[in-house]
Amino acid sequence: MKSTVSVSEGQNNFPALVKAAEGGRVVTVTRHETPVACVIGHDRMSAIIETLEILANPAAMKALHEHQAGKTKFGTLDDIAE
Q1: Cβ contacts of residue 69 below 8 Å, gap of 6+?
Q2: Rounded distance between C-alpha atoms, residue 39 and residue 16, angstroms
């Protein structure tokens, strides 16, 4: 399966589009040579959504920036008070 197909090619080869997406590929669908859609697998799309949710979470981003700055302290589960 090519990485770019026209709408009519996509319609004629829909099972192959789905199989390519399941295999991790992204297939761009064009109309008159202009990209109008992408076919992407569920697992990949779920990962993208999860990443966007993390990026939109201020607490998660603060923790990430602190880790990158070397300010994160690691411990063991025994360090947590019951």
Answers
A1: none
A2: 11
What pTM did the predictor assign? 0.70
- Tens digits of residue pLDDT in 17-45: 999 999 999 999 999 999 999 999 999 99
In the structure encoding, which two tokens stand for residue 47, read together?
């990962």
**Taking the domains of the chain in order of start, what are their residue ranges?**
4-40, 43-71
Kindly report the CA angle at 11 between 32 and 22, in degrees rounded to 5? Answer: 110
Rg (CA), the chain: 21
Report helix angle 58-68 to 42-55, nearest 10.
80
Tokens linked to 30:
């064009």
